[in-house]
Amino acid sequence: MLLRVTDLHKSFPGPDGPLPILRGIDLEMRAGETLALTGESGSGKSTLLHLVGGLDLPDSGTVALDGTDIGALDDAGRARLRRDQVGVVFQQFNLIPSLTVASNISFQARLGGTEDPVWTEALAHRMGLADQLAKYPEQLSGGQQQRVAIARTLAAKPRLILADEPTGNLDEATADRVLALMLELAAETDAGLLMVTHSQRLAARMGRELHLRAGRIA
Ligand SMILES: Nc1ncnc2c1ncn2[C@@H]1O[C@H](COP(=O)(O)OP(=O)(O)OP(=O)(O)O)[C@@H](O)[C@H]1O
């Protein structure tokens, strides 16, 4: 199993004590599966994504990636697992201003030692970024920057892609095209894709949909 989440609980401090956000989440994903995570604003979607990616730790419960319990790893082990297996696309693009678009796209793969120039170039073309490669992030539109962030994640060929509203800044037609491409590329690399979205239209195009309500999967 690519991802196995078991009885995950997470609270944050509130004015009257801990505020439970996730109250027993179970979830499994196989390689190549695509899953939409939906739910009202504040229902805990981003929190769950952070826990799955090892960016935060749960109060209780486990997250296992390819059979490895990430809670049992030390910080360095978790960082390595994140670098080698997990790709995240968050709402903040976190592009590096001093690097060209081309270098931004290959940055993560280079860090992990998995750079594949043929794959990276194909990605840039398929993302519609071929003419932007020599530019710097500040010279791109928001939607172009978002596509660079997505390409950078896919360039490293992660086993699991975690995406938080990855097409949130794109118009409907571009969002559809970019999601289609993400689904295609995930299928080509047999990666799992767990994507938070507020859009029913996009959720319907994923393999499965999980809806978070009151801290549980409804
Ligand atoms: N670090 C934190 N400290 C305290 N409260 C937090 C923290 N992170 C999230 N929360 C709270 O947890 C709840 C869930 O937040 P989360 O961002 O997971 O929701 P979401 O479903 O992703 O929302 P949205 O759709 O608006 O992005 C919110 O009430 C939020 O205020």
TrEMBL record:
* Record-level GO cellular component terms: plasma membrane
* Alphabetized Pfam families for the sequence: ABC_tran (PF00005)
What superkingdom does the record give? Bacteria
**Which PANTHER family is this protein grouped with?**
IMPORT ATP-BINDING PROTEIN, TRANSPORTER, PUTATIVE-RELATED
Q: Which UniProt keywords apply?
A: ATP-binding, Nucleotide-binding, Transport
Which GO molecular function, any one, fits this protein according to its record?
Answer: ATP binding
Q: Which residues form the ABC transporter domain?
A: 3-217
This one is known as ABC transporter ATP-binding protein
Q: Key word Nucleotide-binding present in the record?
A: yes
Give the InterPro entries listed for this entry.
Answer: AAA+_ATPase, ABC_transporter-like_ATP-bd, ABC_transporter-like_CS, ABC_transpr_LolD-like, MacB-like_ATP-bd, P-loop_NTPase
